[in-house]
Amino acid sequence: LKTVVRCLPPKPAEDVFWQGVQAWVTDENVLGRCFILERFEGAYPLAPYIAFKNEEQVATFSRKYDG
Questions:
Q1: pLDDT tops 90 at residue 53
Q2: What is the b/e burial string over 8-33, where b = at least 16 CB atoms within 10 angstroms of the residue's CB?
Q3: Which of 67, 58, 66 is nearest to 24 (CA)?
Q4: In the prediction, which pLDDT does 8 show?
Q5: What's the CA dihedral at 23, 27, 31, 35 to 10 degrees?
Q6: With helix as H, strand as E and coil as C, how does 1-66 read?
Q7: What does DSSP assign to residue 67?
Q8: Residue 21: is its pLDDT beyond 90?
Q9: pTM surpassing 0.85?
């Protein structure tokens, strides 16, 4: 189940983001992940994508992560 994380601070470091979610994003519960940073109209919106293996893991991440 693909999850897109939104409303993050501007231009955070990718490694800082992944360290912040390491309790919920592990090799055991995700199929894949990526961090996209694009320049758009002078801003740098970013979108971490996480592919969780099941709905329970998505729900847990949604409840617990407060970026």
A1: yes
A2: eeeebeeeebeeebeebbeeebbeee
A3: 58
A4: 77
A5: 60
A6: CEEECCCCCCCCCHHHHHHHCCCCCCCCCEEEEEEEECCECCECCEEEEEEECCHHHHHHHHHHCC
A7: -
A8: yes
A9: no
